[in-house]
Design a protein that fits this description.
about 120 residues; 5 strands; alpha+beta; globular; 5-stranded mixed β-sheet; 3 helices; single chain
Length: about 120
Amino acid sequence: MLQVVFYKTQSGNEVVRDYLRQLPANDKRKVGEDLMTVQIGYPMGLPLCRPLGDGLTEVRTSLPSKREIRMIFAFDSGSRCLVVLHAFIKKARQIPKSDLDLAKSRKAEFIMKGG
């Protein structure tokens, strides 16, 4: 089973984890279950995961609150862990460019820090 690491800002804030903690309890449970499934079974494909290119993959979770949440992560081969870089409630058919760009910049920052 791979370790899951949440992206941290330079000041040490776990912004993705903080975002997920704000979800209702049933939604948090479902996100946790899906993330654990990926943690145990990585690499995996649809319907739970979809590659986005540039080493990024999304976890696709249908929440009990009838919303869709997406978590974008990268596999760090050096530390053999999944790095959750960004999470957001899906509102459009495609991932907004701003969300994808944010995940890419966080991945680059994570790699520069050496994990």
